[in-house]
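Milestone 3.1: sequence recovery, worked example.
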């Protein structure tokens, strides 16, 4: 039996601390990660770089090639609602490639699958329907909790206009953040069971990393709570 998670679906509001947790894990020695968090080597699957490519592509089309935008309007909103689902399907496709490339590995890395969703574009409930069976049957959900007010504040704080494509420094204007993410369906999704979310016939364990007051601003505060949360997930997933 392996001693690390196969995949972790890492979700939460924008600026909740997802990327900061991943950055913390990168800075933690592998042996310690494996022992404390059941995460040895790992790979990241994140939908933000995908959608940012759409923004950059449309800017090239409009400003340089003088052609119509393909994915977003002039205000940076998706042209089609289904594009939110396309992003999750792309994560599922990338996960299938990950499995293919590691099929002969006895110690396959953990895949960290990261995204945020608001009720305005279907919420987590709808996004989960586009995760593949391979992800769901092997996965656990780690939800990072912050309030809407904290998400708004931390989004403002982290934004670096010189690096809008950065995983750790990107941000949204207040009005766009409010429209897309102020309303969240996570509490409704989690209300049915304190331990599992039923998705497409799979009972997926979940646990909540509480990031209010903020823990992800200090590695010394991340580690003990992350250890507690991952231990809970491990027990739910693998203990018989």
């Amino acid at each position: 039996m392996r001693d690390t998670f196969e995949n972790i679906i890492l979700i939460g509001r924008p600026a909740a601390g997802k990327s900061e947790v991943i950055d913390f894990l990168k800075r933690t020695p592998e042996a310690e990660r494996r022992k404390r968090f059941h995460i040895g080597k790992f790979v990241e699957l994140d939908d933000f770089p995908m959608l940012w490519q759409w923004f950059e592509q449309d800017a090239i089309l409009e400003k340089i090639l003088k052609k119509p935008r393909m994915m977003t309007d002039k205000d940076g909103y998706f042209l089609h609602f289904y594009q939110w689902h396309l992003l999750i399907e792309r994560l599922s496709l990338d996960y299938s490639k990950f499995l293919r490339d590691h099929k002969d590995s006895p110690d396959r890395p953990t895949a960290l699958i990261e995204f945020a969703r608001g009720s305005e574009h279907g919420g987590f409930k709808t996004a989960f329907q586009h995760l593949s069976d391979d992800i769901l049957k092997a996965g656990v959900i780690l939800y990072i909790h912050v309030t809407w007010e904290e998400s708004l504040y931390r989004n403002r704080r982290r934004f670096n206009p010189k690096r809008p494509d950065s995983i750790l420094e990107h941000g949204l204007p207040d009005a766009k953040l409010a429209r897309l993410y102020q309303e969240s369906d996570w509490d409704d999704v989690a209300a049915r069971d304190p331990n599992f979310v039923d998705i497409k016939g799979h009972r997926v364990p979940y646990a909540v990393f509480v990031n209010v007051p903020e823990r992800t601003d200090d590695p010394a505060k991340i580690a003990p709570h992350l250890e507690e949360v991952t231990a809970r997930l491990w027990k739910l997933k693998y203990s018989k």
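The chain has ten helices and six strands. The domain at 7-42+110-238 is CATH 3.40.50 (Rossmann fold).
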